Structures are given as structure tokens and as C-alpha cells.
Amino acid sequence: MTYAFFPGCSALGTGRSYVESLVAVLEKLGSGLNELEDWNCCGATAWPSVDDVKAVALSARNLALAEEANPGTDPVDVVAPCAGCYRALLKAERALEERGEVSERVDFALQTVGLRSERRARTRHPLDVLVNEIGVTRIGAAVTRPLDGLKVACYYGCLVVRPYATFDDTRDPTSMDRLVRAIGGEPIDWSMKTRCCGGSCYCGGPLIGAMPEATLQLSHELVKEAKKLGADVIATVCPLCAFNLEGFQDRMSREFGETLEVNVGFITQLLGLALGLDERTLGIHRMLRWNLPESRRAAQGGVHAPA
Amino acid sequence: MAQTTAPTSETRKNGSTRGSWKKWRRVTDQSRFEQQLDPGFTQEITSIPNGERLHECIQCGTCSAACAVSAFMDYTPRRLIAMTRAGCRDDVLHSLSPWVCTSCYACTVECPKQVPVTEIMHALKRTALREGEYPRRFTTPIMAREFVGMIERHGRSTESWISLKLYLKTNPFQLLKYYRLALRLARLGRLGFGRESIRRPAELRRMLEAVETPASRVPARGTSTGSVGSLAVAATGGGS
Amino acid sequence: MHLPDGDGEVKSPPESMATAPKVGVYVCHCGLNIAGKVDVERLVEFASTLPDVAVARDYRFMCSDPGQELIQQDIRDGLVNRVVVASCSPLMHEATFRGATAAGGLSPFLFQMASIREHVSWVTADGEEATEKAEALIAGAVRRVALHEDLERRQAPVLPDVLVVGGGIAGIHAALTMAEAGKRVYLVERESTIGGHMAKFDKTFPTLDCSACILTPKMSAVRSNPNITLWTYSDVVGVEGFTGNFTVRVRHRPRYVREDLCTGCLACIDACINKKAKVRDEWNEGLGKRKPIYIPFPQATPPVVVVDPDECIWFKTGKCPRTCVDACERDAFDFEQREEFDEVKVGAIVLATGFKTFDASRIFEYGYGRYPNVYTSPEVERLLNAAGPTQGEIEMRDGGRPKTVGIIHCVGSRDVKYNSYCSRVCCMYSLKLAHLIRERSGAEVYNFYIDMRAPGKGYEEFYWKLLQEGTHFIRGRVAEVTDEAMSKEEEGRLVIRAEDTLIGFVRRVPVDMVVLAVGLEPQSDAEQVRRLFNISCGGEGFFTERHPKLAPVSTFTDGIFLAGACQGPKDIPDSVAQAGAAAAEVLAMVDRGAVELEASTAFVDAAACSGCRTCVALCPFGAITYDAERKVAAVNEVVCKGCGICVGACPSGAAQQHLFTDQQILSEIEGVLQYV
Question: Please, is C603 exposed, middle or buried when counting C-beta atoms within 10 Å of its C-beta (0-12, 13-18, 19+)?
């Protein structure tokens, strides 16, 4: 199965390894991603604050591009790995379906540049594809280097499950936990799965500029709790979450006077490791900290053969 | 400014929050005359999809308590909703709260009356920007405008550029705090300085301009408002 | 007033089927309910121009005595022999105006109502449109009433016995009241004891009197009253017949102990081969354990033990020394017991099937089922009960005693994601729990409420008392209960996050124990019960009363009445009051001795009937029989309830209904269409 792919602007910057690892993992599992030709910014959460209809139009263009590239396919699945993009595309999808004043104006705007929305495009998150299309059983079967009990704090963040809960529970999502279990890891039981990281979902994270103490406190709560519960790594599904939890850890440690040093990565990187992919393919060398515990690292080195 | 660490009972006993004159707030006028309130403002904000649910708010405060950043707001989301409902236009537009909101939608999904709180925050920001009543030294409104401008010009955002521009405009000293991190990220290949752009930015601009055509002037062709779904659209002619 | 020419000249004697129809049209203002929207004077002018209309008048309140007198006088004066009242709906006042028509000397069936309030003035925005619609409805009614005919009025005797379903406080009170009036009452309870929810409470609000002390005397009274047949561990499985003449089938589930022999000495429980109680005790909300042979609580009524076949070793393996049987001095055990059935005939039925509490685990963020020290209010009721699993001590699941307790109100209530209604009792029982927890444990108690609802005698005073006691009240709905600590004071405790909306701060309150004040919901099988008794449910699933104000304990099915929380969330005083009201309604009906049967029954035109028997299978009342010899269906008009299903289903148009014949309905439609 090949999916239309909307990488999002972060894929070109801080979230690069997320996309690298996602592509590699899906390829390993027999699925392909076709990047949309000339995709544009989804509008993030900045555009709705300026013009809500244009925000829909921006995402609608991407959906229309996906439909154009896949004539006759219904639905056209568009994979959007970034949580912010995922929500923005979903929001546009819903607004177009409602066929009200907003969709009329957007349809007209698309038409002026020779595009049209046929409401065939369906936004999918990688977690959704991994769990509901490929399935944990298939993933489990493809594991060559199980994570050997690696303790993983599954962090879903906000926009993957809010406001639209399309493939998982809004308050108690479990898809990532199921993935972690399938690859031999041990998801920790924590109450922070969907707590806001304080990032605000557009590139650069505006709140860190306006109120660094707010972002730091929220991210710190998450990292500290994961550390307290013994997590070896925090697995994320959003480049912004990952950046906040990872990039500001040194500053958190300074501000709050405690050493944190918790690994932060993308769930796709952990999947990739378990599927036997090498660290470079998965963009692990791009992470600020990657220091999985000794026993687990041994497992990664292929000491344990798959069962 | 909110505290970055949770206080302990010792801080209370030691009275660290006492005695400092800086802690005393200026007394602001605590009364509002009816003529100061603006029902048109309420109407404008509630005109968004499901916005009329704002009137169903029971002021339970779930939004505020579910909010991760309400501790950093001048008015909690609940108060902002009440003030919007009452038509306190000036108080609402001069509140920092919408600019602190991270759009995480926790309030929206938890609200027992399904008030679209996050969307209301967006609507408040739109009104504030349009009327030029936003905090000038605060980064979020600047950021939103810069971001929008960048997309209008290039179709994509470049994280490095937007951050750089932002700090130069608001607080250049903050840059010093982050240059080390930025360099590290750049070394790891996570911070590109080449400007990202789509191939047809002019086309995108044309599309965004066309959005401004009011719905009443949008020609009927190609816009299906019926319930027939994509079939109807397909039938109106022209494939891709 | 508008009268056609020849005002007052007609002096022929009233009512004659043979004479030409002289219709009187009476337009009601209903204060401003109708006149505020509809131009009533224009309606009168319009009506007086219609064919067959002899008199057209309007009046402020047609249902008032002077209003009814207008109709009666016109009939007595010989001006009219058919009556149309344009006013509210037939549900509201058809009986009133039929009565007035009859009092004037006409058959009550020579009357027709035009609903210009519910169907017009209340639901139409534009006055002009409303008036036009009202005109059309009146025209239809006038056309139709000309074709009305007198109908035969039949009565059926009412059987004197009564059935009460549900043995909670409402059912108990209704049963006792009717039994004391000398009626034979069958009280059917699903559980092995009567008492319901009230039997699980330690104290009741706002008086704080001991729940058991006021309930158990009534439970004993049920058992000792010779007029009451108490069937516990039983369910109603079939209801047939109609008002005054119900046949009810009751199933008795086996408890493997003979009720007539067991004295409740409980020796068998001590003797059970299971020395330790291991089975989850539902009576104690799972906080305690019981044996496979058990009695829910010491004052259970009847005091008869029950064997749980799913847990009893004898039932599971067939190998057990059966020490319980040896211990029984009365030889009451009967392991061969099977389901048994009884059939009783009753005149009226009182449903008092009660409620269930909201499943707190549905609200993930409150942590029920995830954090052991999060409790529901029914669980805390058991903890506080002297006969409960901890003998009234507030001992938590981890064995600790709380120093701080948070009570969260409105759990599952006032929330469109769960139940949008207010459960009415939670504020008050939360206050009660707050008081008792404080009294028993000395713990600090925080109440998190949205609005404090204390409307009732002594209720506000009880709230006041709690305020005086120093209980903390935080006005704010809790967003989350979490074990994530942000300070060392919060370590190892549960943190409640809510906005103190009266201040405008978000507060994090660390507590040792959380109590979720769960709301009230319809029983999970309310829908089956509704079907069984052929009554209706509202959107949220509670049984619907006939009228929210004026017939609060009646249902749309005659002879079936409601009591207690099956009709909607209700506290004990209200449940008891309603049970008394239901009993009074039943007594009035039974003592009248007879009920008037539906006159608008169906009939089959034998000449047109093709004998397809479609109607026979469809009739919900079994009123249609098939005459095999003549190959036609026939309606037993005594049994027919006039529902019209057969009329609608009949392919050959042979099934017709009095007052709804094709001719009558078509002419009404014609009348309406002529003026739209």
C-alpha cells in the first residue's frame, strides 16, 4: 500500500529524523509514501489566529493535490506525521465536508488555481496507519531485534487525539503503547500521555519566546515524571513535542536544579531499531541525546536472536 | 510573572511572597457600566461555527483546570468566556490569555457543554489582530503575523528564519540563550538556513486572495452545497 | 359574537342525528397563548362563513366554567348539534369539552377539537401565517364533525388486586399503603431482599437519621402484612390485558433454600466448607467478600439465605460434604430447585423499578479504577455503614485512613458527553458524606461543585450547617485527578485540579481519598421493562409520566403508574411522596370498580374483508379473531384499545375505526386543503 505523504515544514528542519525514520519503517513493512508534489504549509495554529478560512484553504490545497495525484482512488489516504499538520488537514477535511459558507469560499479559491476538492482525501496519522492498517501483529512478526523490555514513556501530545479522536481515545490513547509492546518494549503507565508540552504547534514554538517559563515548566513536568517512573526513553509522534522535550532539557535542568538526561525520540525510531534498521537510516545520529541503557543496547546489537 | 517551580509550604511560612512591593497589583477599576459593554462583540465571536454554544456556558471552570497554561494567563479561559458573553470587548482584547493559549484543545474536549473554547480563542486573536489591539512586546501575535507573511510569500515556513526574525523583533537578548542550541541543531542537520519555498508561490497567493471573495459572490459552479457528496462535484464537470 | 341570519329563531329540540348538522365553533384565546399570536376575531368571522356552521364564538378561556357554559347553553337553546372547539390539544382538554358537550345534552362524540395552540400559536412565528393555519384546521374540524356519530360507551370491571414492581423504598411504601387500604398486593423484587438503595445507606439527609432505623420497620411491615404477597428473587416476565384486567406472569429464580422453611438463623453460612469469604460482595459494592451461601445484610427481608450456584462447590464440582445442609435444623435446602412461575390477575400496576448509578470509570480523567483511593459515592456509603465491610470506619483500599478527602460533584451529570440532566440528589448526599467523613475520621473535606443545589425542606439549612462546620467548598468542576506530583507535598497523593471559579485561580488540591458523586441513571434494563409494560421512556431513558405537572405518577398506559426514581432522579422524601400518590391513584381506580373502555374502537367490514389475517397477528391486544367459517376477521370491541394498527395495515380497507373512518379523515383533509 502506498500513501500520499504530507511531510510538513518541520520535516525539513527539527523533525527531520521523524520523517527519515517513518519512511524507512514503512518501507520495511512494505508500505510506501508518495510525497505530495509542491505541498505547502498546513497553516498550523498560527493561521486560524489570523484568518480561519484561509487556514482551511491552505490545507485544502494539499488535500486537493493528493486527490489530483491519485485520480479514481477513494479515499485517498494522506499521511501527515506532524501532529499540527495532522490536525490542520483534518480540520480542513471536516470543514469541506460540512459544505457551508467556508467550504464554498475555499472551493472557489481552489478553482481559481485549477484545483478541486472532491472530498476524497482522508487524513491519516502514522500511528493510525501502523496500528490500524499494518497492525501490531504484522509489526511484531517483523521484529528482528526486540527492545528487550526497554521502558518507554509513550507521549501522544495534544493534537493527535484532540479535538478529533479519529483512531484512538481522546483521554486514554493506547495505539503507541500497543506498538511498543509489539516490539518488545514496556510502556510505562503514566497520566501525562496527552498533556500539553507547552510547545504550541508551529515551528519555533511561539510560547517559548513569549513565556519561556511556561514552556519550560510544562515540558519539565513531562520529562521529570517520565524520569521518575523509570522511562528509558520518551517516544513522541510530533516534531514539536520532541523538540521541546529534547532541546530544552539542559535549560530545564538548570532552571529546576536537577539533572534530567532523559532520551527523547520518535516512536518510528524505536520501531526501526526493532525492525533491524541501522541508527543512521533512522536519523538517530541527529538526536541531541541517545543513550539507551547498557542491557538494552546489547539487545540492539543483535545479541538476542528473534524468537 | 508566574513561578516556574511549584512552591513548598516553607515558602509560604517564610513569607517569601510577602513584603515585596512589586507583588502589589495596581488597583484597576472593578466596575463596568452597561454602556461600556459591547453586545456586537459577543455576536461577532459567537458567529463562528458552534460559537453560539458560548451562551450555554455554565462557568464550571473545567476549561481553566484542563488548561496546561492557565497558570500563566491574566484571565482564566472561563473568565474570558464570561467576559466575552457579557460583551467586555476592551477587557477581553487587552487580555494576554488568548496569546498564551497553545491551541492544545484540552478545554474543548473536556467542556461539559461542548463550548468550542479553542476556536473562540482563535476568534479573539483574529479580532485583536484586525483591530490592532494586541500586546506589542509579546511574541505570539508577532509570530503569528510573521508566520502568515512567510507562508504567503513562500508557501512553507523555515524554522530558523522565523525564529531569528521573531527574536530580533521582540527580544534580541533571548537569542543569546538559544544560539548554542541552534548551533548544535545545525550541526546535526536539523536547522536549515536555506529558505524553503514551494515551486508555485504566486499560485498560492492567488488562491489565498480568492478566499477573500465573499461567499455571496462566489459563483455557484464547482461549489456543491448539496448533500449528494463528491458525486455531485464530479458531475459538475472537469476531472483533475 | 357572530351569528348567522335568523339569530335565536331556531328552537328545535337539541340533538338529532337525523337533522342537518348545525355546528358550533368555539375559539379559545387561552389568555394570550393563542390570542397573542392568532387573530381570534378573524377566526370567528371566518368560521361563521363555513357551511353547516350555526354559531361561532370566542372566549378567553373555553375550559373555564363560563366557557363550557357557552357550549351547553347553545346546545340547550337548540342552536347547535355538533361542537368544534379550537383551543389546545386533545391530550389536554378533549375530556373537558366532551364532558361539556354531554352536559348540554348531546352525545360527547359529536365533538371535535382543533389544536390551534400546540399546532399553531406556539410553533408559528408569523401571526398572519398562524391565523391562516388555524383557519384551515377549523375548516377541517367542521367538515369532519358533521360526519361524527354517537358511539357506544362500555365499561369493564376493575380487578381488585394490585402489582407493585420493585421493592425499594418507593415500592415498599406504595405496597404498604394499598395493603392497608385492604387490597391484595403482589410485591415483586429482583434482588433477594427488599430495601433497595436505601438499605445500603448509613444516614439520610438532611436530618441525618439512621437509614436502617427508619427503613427496616417498613420492611418488616411488608413481611407481616397479610395483604402483601412478597416475591423476592423474582421478575415479571409477561404482562397481558388492559387497564383493570392485567394478567402478569412472574418468574421465581431458585435460591436453593426453601423460603417457607428457612428462618434466617445463618448457621449454614458459618458451616459452609469455604471457611473464608472469597466472593465479591455486590451488596458492599465489591469492598467486602461473601461466601457462596449468603444473606446480603442482617435485616434482609425475607431473612432467607441464597446459594450462588456459580460459586458453590457442590454446583461446580458435585463434590462437597455439604456441611451447610447438615447445619440446617429445618431441612430447608433444596438443591433441585428450578425456576418457578406464577400468574396473577391484577387491576393496576405500580412500577417502582428505581435507578442505577453512573459508571464512574467512563470518565477516564477522574481515575476511577486506575487509582485505588478513588471511590464512588455508593462505595463510601458502604464504608460509612456500621454494617458495612469496615464497620463504619473509613479505611481505604490500601488500609490507610484519609486525612484529606475531596468530593467531586456532578460525576456523569450536567455533561452532554454523559448525561446532560442534573441528578438532583448528588449535592445533598455529598454534603451528607462530607459531614459523616469529617465526623468519623476528622479528615478535611473539600467539595468541588458546579452549583450547589439544595432546594428542599431543611436542605439549605443543611448546607449552612456544613459551611459552619468548616467544610471546604470550591466552586469548580474538576478537570482531572492525577497522581503526578508537582511538589513534595503532593508526592504519593492524589491531586485534584479544578478552577476555584469564585476566585479565578486554578487550584491543585492534594488529597488522600477522592469520592466521586455519581449521578443517577435509568436501570440498564429500563428499555425491556418499558416494552414489557407498554409505557414510554424519555430521551434519557427514564419512564415518562402522563403529564409533568398534572399527572406525574400516571403513564400513557391506563392502569400503570410510576413511583420513585424510575421516573427520574429523586431523593427519598420525593420517592415516598410519589409512591403515596401512585397508591392513591390505584385506590381511586380500583374502588371505582369499573373503567370506561375506549369508544373509538376498530371494526371490520365483513363484506370487504379478504380474510388475509394480517390484522390478527399485528394486534398488540389480541383483540382480533378470525372466523374460519366465514373467512373474515372480527374485532372484539371490549378488548380493542383503538390503537389503529389494524386499520393502517388492512390491505383491503375492511378494518375501520370509529371516529377515524376513511370518510371522516378524508373530509377533514379536504376541509384543511380548501383553505391552504
Answer: middle
